[in-house]
Design a protein that fits this description.
Layout: E1 3-9, H1 15-32, E2 35-40, H2 54-64, E3 70-74, E4 78-80, H3 87-92, E5 99-103, E6 113-121, H4 125-139, H5 143-148, H6 158-168, H7 170-174, E7 176-179, E8 184-186, E9 192-194, H8 203-218, H9 229-242, H10 251-260, H11 262-274, H12 277-283
Parallel strand pairs: 1-2, 1-3, 5-7, 8-9
Antiparallel strand pairs: 3-6, 4-9, 5-6
Helix pairs in contact: 1-8, 2-4, 4-6, 9-10, 9-11, 10-11
Length: 284
């Protein structure tokens, strides 16, 4: 099976992060006989944030070169956690699928996906059509409008364009397999982990966290399966607010934060603990 791993970033803000995560992607490619490609810069646009659209152009270029294998795209903040994951076997029975994408945790619509880790089957006509439609929507953004897009969170970002392509065309959508984010595209995923901006909005500390995680992976240490960011946050809140370690009932709070994200979920858990009978009795 032919497979190419793709990564990209701008030359400044995310380049250090890409240098870290690419170490795992390159090692994974080496172990499993895959190809690795990386691009630094901007394919179309005017500022660093526009590098988020590079994935569209890179995938389209692969098709133009006649590549008909699989393409695994990974954002600069995504790294391979399990270097021994058997992607050959995983994809063996998915040749009838145009792509594999992960649904955002907590979303009810399966094609409300995170575009940070994507698998495209370039040998599938619907896979090539989906990439073509994604590119068409990107190229339809006028130069003046593109110039006004200052962050990846603006309305016309790559993820929203892909979502719209899937949402508006059931033929393209039905050929895609929508996976659990706990396989890839989650900070506690089994295969590829992604440490999103929503977990740490500071680019420097976020990059440092990723660098530590990458070093642990490459040195064979890994992370403890039960030490997710959500569980750690809930444990800290229990100790600060209730003065004790969490019990089995805290799992619901961990799941809530996983679904809502740290920024939105943590205040909800704090409020719940402060309103609990245990805390009121403790305050007497």
């Amino acid at each position: 099976m032919d497979l190419t791993i793709l990564q990209t970033s701008d030359a400044f803000k995310y380049s250090r992060m890409l240098r870290a995560t690419s170490r795992t992607a390159i090692e994974y490619a080496r172990r499993h006989g895959f190809v690795y490609e990386s691009f630094t810069g901007i394919k179309r646009g005017f500022r660093g944030a526009h590098a988020a659209f590079n994935r569209i152009m890179l995938l389209d270029e692969m098709i133009a070169r006649g590549n008909r294998g699989w393409a695994l795209y990974m954002d600069a903040d995504a790294y391979v956690y399990d270097l021994d994951f058997d992607l050959h076997t995983y994809l063996a029975d998915k040749q009838d699928r145009s792509a594999v994408m992960a649904t955002i945790p907590g979303e009810m619509v399966p094609w409300h996906i995170n575009s940070g880790v994507l698998l495209f089957n370039l040998g599938h006509p619907a896979g090539r059509s989906l990439i073509g439609e994604w590119k068409r929507r990107f190229m339809a953004i006028a130069e003046d409008s593109l110039r006004s897009l200052e962050t990846v969170w603006d309305d016309e970002n790559d993820q929203i364009l892909l979502y719209k392509a899937l949402n508006e065309d059931p033929v393209l959508r039905d050929a895609v397999l929508f996976e659990d984010a706990k396989l890839f595209n989650h900070h506690d995923a089994r295969f590829i982990r992604q440490f999103l901006n929503s977990l740490d909005g500071n680019i420097d500390t976020r990059t440092e966290t990723i660098e530590v995680a990458v070093n642990e992976v490459l040195h064979g240490q890994g992370m403890h399966a039960g030490s997710s960011a959500e569980q750690q946050m809930v444990a800290d809140l229990y100790r600060i607010i209730l003065g004790r370690d969490p019990d089995s009932g805290s799992r619901g709070y961990s799941d809530l934060i996983a679904a809502q994200g740290l920024t939105r979920g943590t205040p909800i858990v704090v409020s719940a603990l402060l309103d609990s009978e245990e805390y009121r009795l403790k305050r007497r």
